[in-house]
C-alpha cells in the first residue's frame, strides 16, 4: 500500500487540476458571477436600486451550510466504508490462501486410496489461490459496471473453470452452458463454436503477446487499443517507463478479443481546459454521438451498475473446493470453519459494496438541496450589494465556488468505484492482493526445527545472549544461566532468565 496519495506528490500538473471539482462547477459559478455583475452594475450606476433586506441571509446561510456539510459527510462515510470493504477482501484473501497453501497437505490420498502426486497437489492448490485473486479482479469490474469475464486481467485467472454442465466426452450444447459463461457470451463470438485453446506455449514466448489474438500473432505492445491498463488509463507515462501488470499473468488464448483491464473515458482537451466546453454546448446539434460516455457539457458520465454473477460464481467454486477437501478428510474441522468463514466474508463484502454503489442519496433530497442552493446564490447579490458594492461580484463568485464545490465533492465521492481521480484506486488494491497471494505461495513451509535451533536465534535476549545452537549443544545438560548460580538448573532458571529479560527491557525502553 502506498502511504501517500499519488496526487499529492510532485509539482502541480494538469492531472491534478482535473482531479478538482472546478471542471464540474465552473458553469454554475460563471452564471452566478454574471448575475452578481449585472446586479452590482445596475445598482452602482444608479439605474435602479436592486438591494433588498438581508435579514434572512445569516439564518438561511447557516442552515444551508449545515445541510451541505451533512451531504458531504455522508458521502465521505460511504467512501471510507468502500475502502474498509476492500480491506476485508484483502484480509479474507490472505487467510484463504494461507489455509489452502499451508494446511492442505501436499502428500494426499483420497478415500479410494488414490494418491495425488506432488505436482498435482501443488497445481491444485495454486489454481484455487488464483481463483481467490480472480475474485478481487471480478469485483473491481463489477463495481465499474463492466460485465463479463473477457478482460486481460480476469480471463487468465478463471478460464480454467468449466464452461458446460454436460459430462466429459459428450458434445456440449448451448443449453448446457453454465451461468458464468452464458452471461458473458455475445452473438459475434459464441462460446459453443469456440476452438479449444492450443497446448501450452514455450516460456520463450513474449508475455506481452496479445492474449485475444490468434496463436502465433502478436500485437504491438505500445498500441493504445490493446495495450495494458496503465497505457490505456494513464497515457502520460512514457512507453519505456510504463508498467504492464498483465505480464505477471498467464498467456491464455481466448476466442473473444480481451478488453483492457482499465477502460476509462478518453481524456480530451476539455478535461484540462474546462472553459472550452462552452463551445460544445453550441455545437451539440452538429456533432455525431461518437462518445456516449460524456454529457452535453463534455463531463464524464459515470457508468451505471449492471448485474454480474462472476464474483458469486467464484465463491461457489471456492465453497465446492472446501466441500471436496472435507469429503476426502484433507482438512481439519476447525480449519474448514475458518476457510468457510473467510469465503462468507468475501460474499458479505461483495453485498456491502453492491449496497454502497447501488444506493445513492434519494433524488428528492439531492434535487431539493441543489435548488435551494441555487436560489440562495441567486438572491445573494441582491442582499449584499448595498454593503459590498462592486465587491459583490468577487464575493458571489467565491461563495458559489465554495458552496457548489462542497456539494459537487459529495456527489463525486458518493460512488468511489469509478475512474475519477478522486475515486478509490481499485487497480492498486487488486495488484496488492496479487502480490500478497504470490508471497504466500512462495513460502516452502519448512519444519520449525530447521530454523529455530540455529546460531541466528537468541531466544532469551537480552538477559541471556547465547544463541539456540549453544543452548542446545548438550541436550543432556539442563539449562543453567551463570547469573543464577543459586537456582536449580532447568525450568526454574529459564523463568528467572525471562524475568530478568522483562526487567531489562522495561528499563531500557523507558530510559531517556
Your description of this structure?
- Keywords: Cell membrane, Ion transport, Membrane, Transmembrane, Transmembrane helix, Transport.
- Residues 212-246 are annotated as: Disordered.
- The chain crosses the membrane at residues 25-43, 55-73, 373-391.
- This is UPF0187-domain-containing protein.
- Its main location: membrane.
- The protein is mainly α.
- It has a domain at 449-510.
- It has 17 helices and two strands.
- It has helices at 14-18, 22-44, 55-103, 118-143, 155-158, 179-182, 229-233, 269-272, 278-282, 310-327, 333-358, 363-388, 392-412, 426-442, 449-452, 468-471, 491-510, and strands at 108-109, 115-116.
- It has a two-stranded antiparallel ribbon.
- A hairpin with a 5-residue loop joins strand 1 and strand 2.
- Helix 3 (55-103) packs antiparallel against helix 11, helix 4 (118-143) packs antiparallel against helix 10 (310-327) and helix 4 packs antiparallel against helix 14 (426-442).
- The longest helix has 49 residues, at 55-103.
- It starts with 13 loop residues before the first helix and ends with a helix.
- Mean pLDDT is 79; it is low at 201-241.
Amino acid at each position: 500500500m502506498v502511504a501517500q496519495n499519488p496526487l499529492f506528490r510532485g509539482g502541480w500538473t494538469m492531472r491534478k487540476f482535473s482531479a478538482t471539482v472546478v471542471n464540474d462547477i465552473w458553469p454554475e459559478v460563471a452564471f452566478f458571477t454574471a448575475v452578481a455583475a449585472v446586479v452590482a452594475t445596475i445598482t452602482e450606476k444608479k439605474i435602479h436600486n436592486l438591494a433588498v433586506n438581508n435579514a434572512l441571509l445569516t439564518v438561511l446561510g447557516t442552515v444551508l451550510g449545515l445541510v451541505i456539510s451533512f451531504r458531504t459527510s455522508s458521502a465521505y462515510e460511504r467512501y471510507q466504508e468502500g475502502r474498509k470493504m476492500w480491506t476485508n477482501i484483502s484480509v479474507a484473501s490472505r487467510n484463504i490462501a494461507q489455509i489452502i497453501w499451508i494446511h492442505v497437505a501436499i502428500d494426499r490420498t483420497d478415500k479410494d486410496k488414490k494418491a495425488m502426486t506432488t505436482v498435482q497437489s501443488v497445481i491444485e492448490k495454486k489454481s484455487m489461490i488464483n481463483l481467490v485473486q480472480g475474485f478481487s479482479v471480478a469485483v473491481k469490474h463489477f463495481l465499474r459496471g463492466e460485465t463479463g469475464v473477457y478482460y486481460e486481467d480476469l480471463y487468465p485467472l478463471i478460464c480454467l473453470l468449466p464452461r458446460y454442465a454436460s459430462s466429459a466426452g459428450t458434445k456440449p450444447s448451448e443449453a448446457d452452458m453454465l451461468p458464468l459463461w452464458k452471461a458473458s457470451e455475445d452473438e459475434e463470438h459464441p462460446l459453443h463454436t469456440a476452438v479449444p485453446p492450443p497446448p501450452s506455449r514455450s516460456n520463450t514466448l513474449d508475455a506481452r503477446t496479445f492474449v485475444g489474438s490468434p496463436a502465433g500473432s502478436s500485437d504491438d505492445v505500445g498500441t493504445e487499443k490493446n495495450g495494458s491498463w496503465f497505457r490505456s488509463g494513464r497515457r502520460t507515462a512514457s512507453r519505456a517507463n510504463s508498467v504492464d501488470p498483465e505480464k505477471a499473468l498467464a498467456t491464455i488464448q481466448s476466442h473473444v478479443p480481451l478488453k483492457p483491464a482499465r477502460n476509462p473515458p478518453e481524456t480530451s482537451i476539455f478535461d484540462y481546459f474546462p472553459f472550452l466546453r462552452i463551445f460544445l454546448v453550441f455545437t451539440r446539434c452538429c456533432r455525431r454521438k461518437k462518445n456516449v460516455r460524456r454529457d452535453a457539457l463534455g463531463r464524464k458520465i459515470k457508468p451505471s451498475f449492471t448485474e454480474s454473477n462472476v464474483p458469486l460464481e467464484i465463491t461457489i467454486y471456492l465453497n465446492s473446493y472446501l466441500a471436496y477437501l472435507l469429503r476426502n478428510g484433507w482438512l481439519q474441522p476447525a480449519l474448514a470453519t475458518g476457510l468457510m468463514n473467510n469465503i462468507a466474508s468475501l460474499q458479505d463484502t461483495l453485498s456491502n459494496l453492491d449496497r454502497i454503489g447501488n444506493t445513492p442519496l434519494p433524488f428528492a433530497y439531492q434535487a431539493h438541496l441543489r435548488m435551494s442552493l441555487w436560489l440562495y446564490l441567486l438572491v445573494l447579490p441582491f442582499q449584499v450589494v448595498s454593503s459590498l458594492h462592486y465587491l459583490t461580484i468577487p464575493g458571489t463568485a467565491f461563495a458559489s465556488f465554495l458552496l457548489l464545490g462542497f456539494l459537487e465533492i459529495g456527489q463525486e465521492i458518493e460512488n468511489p468505484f469509478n475512474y475519477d481521480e478522486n475515486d478509490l484506486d481499485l487497480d492498486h488494491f487488486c495488484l496488492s492482493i496479487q502480490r500478497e497471494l504470490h508471497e504466500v505461495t512462495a513460502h516452502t513451509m519448512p519444519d520449525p526445527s530447521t530454523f529455530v535451533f540455529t546460531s541466528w536465534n537468541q531466544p532469551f535476549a537480552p538477559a541471556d545472549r547465547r544463541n539456540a545452537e549453544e543452548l542446545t549443544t548438550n541436550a543432556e545438560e539442563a539449562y543453567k544461566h551463570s547469573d543464577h548460580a543459586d537456582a536449580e538448573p532447568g525450568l526454574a532458571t529459564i523463568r528467572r532468565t525471562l524475568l530478568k529479560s522483562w526487567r531489562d527491557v522495561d528499563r531500557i525502553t523507558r530510559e531517556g
